[in-house]
Every structure is written in C-alpha cells, then in structure tokens.
Amino acid sequence: DVKVTQSSRYLVKRTGEKVFLECVQDMDHENMFWYRQDPGLGLRLIYFSYDVKMKEKGDIPEGYSVSREKKERFSLILESASTNQTSMYLCASRDDRYSSYEQYFGPGTRLTVT
Amino acid sequence: AQSVAQPEDQVNVAEGNPLTVKCTYSVSGNPYLFWYVQYPNRGLQFLLKYITGDNLVKGSYGFEAEFNKSQTSFHLKKPSALVSDSALYFCAVRDRYGNNRLAFGKGNQVVVIP
Predict the structure, then answer these.
(1) Fewest C-beta in 10 Å: which of B3, B39, B70, B79?
(2) What confidence tens digit (pLDDT) does each residue in A79-92 have?
(3) Any idea of the CA torsion for A51, A56, A58, A62, to the nearest 10 degrees?
(4) pLDDT digit string, tens, across residues B4-47
C-alpha cells in the first residue's frame, strides 16, 4: 500500500512565523502535490513537483514556497504565516508510469495561525 | 483549463435507499475522472476512476460511477446507502494529455439517515 505521511496533524503558529510542513511518500512516486482545503472551496492546488528540484505553481501559490531535495520528500513553506493561511493542508503523490493515475493523499495538517 | 461542478452542497438519503452524487466536468480533450471520499479529520481516499474502456466503473465499498461523454457527467452511485457512507465526496478531472493537474469539485456532504 502507498503511504503518504505528513509531519503534523495539528499545528498552531503565530502571525509572521516561518512554517514548514513536511510530506513523505514511500512508493518512489515522481509527482507530489500540496493542496489547501477550505469549506465550500474544495481543494485548491498550491504547488506541485514532477521531479526532484522541479516545481510548478498551482492556482494559489502566493505566500507559499516549496522544496523537493529528495524524491520522497516534498516540503511546503509559509514564509511569513498570516491568519488567512489557517486551513487544512493536504499532500498527495502520484505515479503515472504504470497507468495508475490516481493520487494518494496524506492525512492532512490542520494549521491554525493566530 | 479543466473544471468540475458538483451542484449540490449536501445530499440526504435514508439508509437502504439508492445514493447518487452528481458531477459534471469540463476539459479540452478526453478526461481522466476520479471520485474520492473524505471522512472527518482524514485525508482523501480514492474510490474509483475512469481512464478508458467500459463507461460503468466499479470501485470500493460498493460504489460505482458512469461516464457519460455526451452529458460530460460522471455521477457516483450506490444501490443501498449505509450510515457509514456519511462523508464528504469529491469528484476530480484531469486532461488526458499534457496537463499534470487534477481539478477538484467543491465536494458534496452526504448524510445517510438511519
């Protein structure tokens, strides 16, 4: 079974802090994704990566950056946390090499910025 | 760009009755289509997908969905709902060629009434 883990289930940070959210997958997947989930808005793509050191902006990249130094790990960074970044953050991975196409999600990190 | 519409915010159904969750999509070419389910405070779990072939696809927990190209729909169905099916359901679409991104709908809350 594919396993995607996220470093924290719940996180509380102060406005202005730098925040790191970590995601690790154990199936050698090429593609990794960061989404945020807000009620009534569904999932919105922040950034994704299709290979080590490669990244592309999603629909809402402002205020975020990412890092992918190793294939299994994809980090989301909030440079200076703000209250409007309070949300559920979901990481996902996907491997298109074997025609599977579905994305596998981690359990999510509920971030509160005060 | 691809997009998904899930027209109902909430679907209420009595236990034992048929369950339908509606989804329509928009892509420039042929789609890959997916359904995911989310239980409270959890990540998304994959239910089923349409990639090619038979328009009726069967997935986990007794769910199925029918791809209808002329109506650009991919409605999720279950013949007999269980209370444990109460959850948030997301439809997602991806363009078959070129675009790496998965577009999600806003989600449907399903409430199965005992």
Answers:
(1) B70
(2) 999 999 999 999 99
(3) 130
(4) 999 988 999 999 999 999 999 998 888 999 999 999 878 899 99
Helix, strand, coil share of chain B (percent; to 5):
5, 55, 40
Residue B53 DSSP class = S
Q: For residue A55, what are its two tokens? A: 């990244």
- Distance between CA atoms of residues A70 and A97, nearest Å: 19
Confidence of residue A1 (pLDDT cuts 50, 70, 90): low
Q: Is B52 on the interface with A (CB under 8 A)?
A: no
Distance, in Å, from the CA atom of B14 to the CA atom of A106, rounded to the nearest integer, reads 31
Q: How far apart are CA B107 and CA A44, in angstroms?
A: 12
Asked whether the beta carbons of residue A105 and residue B101 sit closer than 8 angstroms, the reply is no
Cβ neighbors of B65 (< 8 A, separation 6 or more) are: B33, B35, B48, B50, B56, B57, B59, B74, B75, B76, B77
**Contacts with B84 (C-beta within 8 Å, 6 or more apart), sequence order:** B112
Which residues are paired to B109 by β-bridges?
A: B10, B88
In angstroms, the CA A76 to CA A33 distance is 10
Other residues' Cβ atoms within 10 Å of the Cβ of residue B74: 28
CB contact under 8 A, B42 and A48: no
Amino acid letter, residue B86: S
Residue A48: what residue type? F
The answer to whether A105 and B45 are in contact (CB under 8 A) is yes
Picking from B41, B102, B105, the nearest residue to A103 by CB comes out as B102
